[in-house]
Amino acid sequence: MAPVIDSESVVRLVATAMVQLSQQRGPSKTIYPDAVQKALNQVVLLALERGAPPPHSVADLVRWAQRPLGEWPLDLPTDLAAEDTVLVDPDTMVPTQRCLEWLVDAGDTLAELVENKVMLGVLAKTRSAHAPDSYSEFRKLLITQPVLSRSEFLSVSTSNIELELLDEQIKYSYRPAPSSLRRDGTYRLCGRCKGLLVPVGKDGFRCELDRCRREGVALGDTIDPGRHQLVYQLLRPLRVFVTGPGLAETDLQTDLESLGLAVEMWPEFDAYDLRITFANGSVWAIDVKDYANPALLARRASPLPKRPPYHRAFLVIPQYRFDERRDYRTVFHHHVDPEVGEHLELATDTEIVTAAKKQLRASAVRRSERKDR
């Protein structure tokens, strides 16, 4: 008999519950959002159906979420979720990026928060004002300053003329940092992404971004909230889905410009992330994503807009994701819509730089041959 409880739906429900629990404020934690109770009920039914011990409480459900999915009684395809995937980091007790990816895949409120309330709102406002520079400056702000002191928070939209238009969106995007991230009364920045580090254990720290964790802790500046009164940080979805990929975007921009290439960032109000123009007139369009799960990425992939025009279109993933999952490319192509895959080339940032060098060498050879004729 086929299972009654769908494994994918259960993972999405638990991901939603974990994010909602992490956002719950106030002294009372006894009244839980409906999504949390629904997730608990479904996991109980799943466990009973598969003959596994069920969780008995919300606290048990949170402990389940700290276990790798490979230990759950699921029947997920192995290429959809790596067995070592956890939804809640057992050290920091916050939802992981993989948890947020499952939630976004479910089309839940998190996707609406990121795409509709903030980014699409910024796009609409800057387009109506014919202000592409304002959009670009907003993206740069979210990438380079995921944390603001109170004085910076109050003055950021007045100190940069391009951001005056987006004061409302900026105020919405940043929220007071929780006191749980303080150690000895102060916050600590990650030396790489400039986000707030999460205190772990007696004297350790962890960055919430996967790219920083892979390289180890890099201690940045200390911020004393007593002096600044409050410290503000970007909403978590923006930190994961804008700041994280944005760092990969700007790193790639630097690498390509060092080759002498013309690189335009977020052309036509973010039609895609980078537009590269070669001396021979060839144009590449690049969209950068930093997804841990290639199957969930493939499901959300879509063709790049046709304007501004280009000759080749790429979906670029940081190399470290391919190093972590050797089957990343295979899994992506297995799940992507064939029509999308036909028009969108998957590559790592390392491969793009190598391909650009090859293109430049080929152009140089052709110019040399023409001179010799």
**Unreliable residue stretches:** none
The number of E-state strands comes to: 12
Query: Major sheet, described briefly?
Result: 5 strands, mixed
Portion of residues in beta strands equals: 5-15%
Measured on Cα atoms, how large is the radius of gyration? 22 Å
Any idea what the shape is?
A: globular
**Total helical segments:** 17
> Reading side by side through the largest sheet, how are the strands ordered?
8-9-10-11-12
Order of helices and strands: HHHHHHEHHEEEEHEHEHEHEEHEHHHEH
Distance between the ends: 74 Å
Q: In terms of structural class, how would the helical and strand content be classed?
A: alpha+beta
Could you please describe the fold and organization of this structure?
The protein is α+β, with helices and mostly antiparallel strands. The protein has 17 helices and 12 strands. A 5-stranded mixed β-sheet has the order 8-9-10-11-12. A hairpin with a 5-residue loop joins strand 9 and strand 10. Helix 1 runs antiparallel to helix 2. It is globular. The protein starts with 6 loop residues before the first helix and ends with a helix.
